[in-house]
Amino acid sequence: MSYNAKKVAGQKIDAAPGVPDIILFRDISGKFATTTNGAIVKKSNGEILPDDEPLFLLRARDLLAVSILRFYKLMCENNPQLDWQVSKLEEAIWLFEKFKSEHPERMKQPGITRGR
Asked: In a 10 Å sphere around its CB, with 0-12 CB exposed, 13-18 middle and 19+ buried, how is residue 22 labelled?
């Protein structure tokens, strides 16, 4: 497995009928991407996430992120219909652990900078 955040730059995906094609800018976890105009889009169906929907982002440099992902995976494993989600979580855990081992100097305690 490998991850390249710029692998989608310039890629087009189909939008809803009557909506212009969406040009992607940066991949987010394989499932979503940002667009050239700053929107976040679900790559599988071209759905633009609404601006009024709260989002929460975990970064690989967060020392607690892998633990959060493992816990979420455990909750998903209790539902056999979430096998695809479990496989995506396994991939994310692998990528986050790889980042941690390759960049220990970039790891940090969450909230230590108080948003600065």
From this structure: buried
CB hemisphere CA count around 112 (13 angstroms):
9
Helix axes 65-77, 83-102, angle to 10 degrees: 160
Q: What is the pLDDT of residues 14-63, one digit of tens each?
A: 555 555 567 778 888 878 888 888 889 888 888 889 999 999 999 999 99
Q: Is residue 55 part of a domain?
A: no
What domain range is 20 assigned to?
Answer: 12-48
- Residue at 54 is within a domain: no
How many domains in the chain? 2
DSSP of 44-96: TTTEEPPTTS------TTBTTHHHHHHHHHHHHHTSGGGHHHHHHHHHHHHHH
Q: Look up the pTM and report it.
A: 0.76
Q: Give all strands of the β-sheet with 22-28 in edge-to-edge order.
A: 12-13, 22-28, 32-35, 40-42, 47-48
